[in-house]
Amino acid sequence: MKKLGVFFITTLLSATTILATPIKIQVNGKEIQSKVAPITQNGTTLVPLRIISEELGAFVEWSPATNTITIYSDLANLQLSMGSLEMTKLDFASNSETQITLALAPIQINSTTMVPLRAISEGLGCNINYASGVIDINSPTTTVQPGSPQFTEETKLIIQNDLTNKYGICQTVAGDIPLTFSLTVNENKLKYYPCDFEIAAKLSEQDIAHLKNLTLTAPDTAVYVKKQLQSHMGQLALELITTYPEAKFWGYYDLSHYETTDTKQKLITSFACTWMNYMPDKDLTYAGSKKGLFTWFTSYDTEIW
User: Fold this and answer.
1) 224-258: per-residue pLDDT in tens?
2) Domain 23-138 adopts which CATH fold?
3) For residue 216, which phi and psi values (nearest 5 degrees)?
């Protein structure tokens, strides 16, 4: 019985190794302190995910409902699931999505998520050296940082002309709806402006009134027209993201109108089908917003229009 107990203890220790002298972690030359030290399990080094990712300038989001972790960085987005070996990487430079199989699935130790070191190196493109008990992690060297591109008024005019030529009219079952595009470019990367471009597709007062009337007189037709408008906006958005993969966009239909049209009294601001491809921080800063996937922020069925 004693021999059997010794066997189990020996097996356990060989599977997971926590060194007497904890492994140190350096990120861009700075030593970071984590409440859970790196461990070695079955020959694979596991490191604390959040503290390293955030030190690299990434944003980490945990979804308890699905047990998934999403990491938003300037170069790529990563998605991992607890207990799964598969990691999804959306690379902004190539605008492609790939699956990376890890040696071990993410685990939790004392409420700290631990992932294989490879998830950091391949996922975030970091340079990693591991020697003499020190894991040295360095951000990738790039001449131009994706997520901080330089866009100008000239770029804005090019985009505006393309949108007008390709998406200036939305064909619906209730007739064609002409759109006027208004663009704002964040050329100077203003601190409290989280995106590179704001794109508003303006409907005329007449078409806004027509949509309102359809909602009252032919609600089924109105729903279908709004779906067609959303599809039109979605196609526009995906073409922009594909053409300018490094840019952060915020777009919407501008349904703003005056309550009393003749006298231009009481402007009612209203947006619909709002979308973005970045994750803003709580202060809505440019530096704090991270490139992300295309997302409907609001859609036709969540708004009154």
Assistant:
1) 898 899 899 999 998 999 999 889 999 999 888 77
2) Copper Amine Oxidase; Chain A, domain 1 (3.30.457)
3) -85, -40
% of residues, the chain, pLDDT over 90:
35
Distance CA 254, CA 277 (A): 18
Amino acid at 162: D
Strand partners, 176: 171
Rg of the chain in Å (alpha carbons): 25
- Domains of the chain, by residue range, sit at 23-138, 153-302
In the block, residue with structure tokens 């917003």: 289
d(CA 26, CA 29): 6
pTM over 0.70: no
Distance CA(281)–CA(295), nearest Å, equals 15
With CA atoms as reference, report the closest residue to 251 among 264, 265, 235. 235
Contact 183, 199 (CB under 8 A): yes
Residue 146, amino acid: P
